[in-house]
Amino acid sequence: MSREAILHTVRTALGRSAGQMPPPPPPPMLLGKTMDAESRVASFVQRFDVLAGKAVRVPDAQAATRWLHVFLAGKTSVACNAPYLVECGVTSLPGVQTGFHDRDSLRAACADANVGITSANYALAETGTMVMISSPKEARLISLLPPVHVAVFPASRILVGLDELLTVTPLPAEQTSSMVLITGPSRTADIEQILVRGVHGPGEVYAIIVEA
Description:
alpha/beta; 30% helix; elongated
C-alpha cells in the first residue's frame, strides 16, 4: 500500500479530508489520587521524615506556638509576614524578628538568624513537599538563608500531589516570580556521590502541622 493510500485511510478514519487541519487539542485534565484528610497528613509526615525532614503534628495553633517557644530558646530567629503566623501568635514570641519590608534589612537579619520561620502555601502528601509562593508576606530568603527552617501551616493546606497543586494554581507565574518546592533539607553530592546537607540551603527543616 502506498504512503498516500495509508494517509487517506487514516484521514478517513478520523473523519478528515486532505489538507484539513486537525482541531485544537482539548485542555489537559489532571487526574490524581484521592485521599481523605488524615491520609494526606500521614503520607506527608512519612515522606517528609524519610527525606530527613522533621514533621511535628500539633492539635492547634496554641500548641504550635508552645512548641516554637521551647524550640527557639537561646536562638535568634526571623519570621515572615504571613498572616497565619500572626494568627498563631508566632510573631509575638520573644526574640522573633518580623515585619520586614526592606530587602537589605531582611537579608541582614536572615544572615544572622539561627532559624527562619515561615508558613507554607501548600504541602504535597505524595512527596513530602512544602510549596512556598514568594510574596511580600512570604519572603523566600527566610526559608533559604538561615541554617534551620521551620514552616508552620494548617493541615487543610496539604494537597495530594503535584497534579492537584497545578489544578489549584494553574498559572503560578501570574501570582509570583518564584514558587519554591521544598522537599526536606538542602542536599548535594560531589562527583564521588558523598551526600552533604545544608550546602545550598538549611541543613534542618521542620514542618509544624496544625490540625485544627
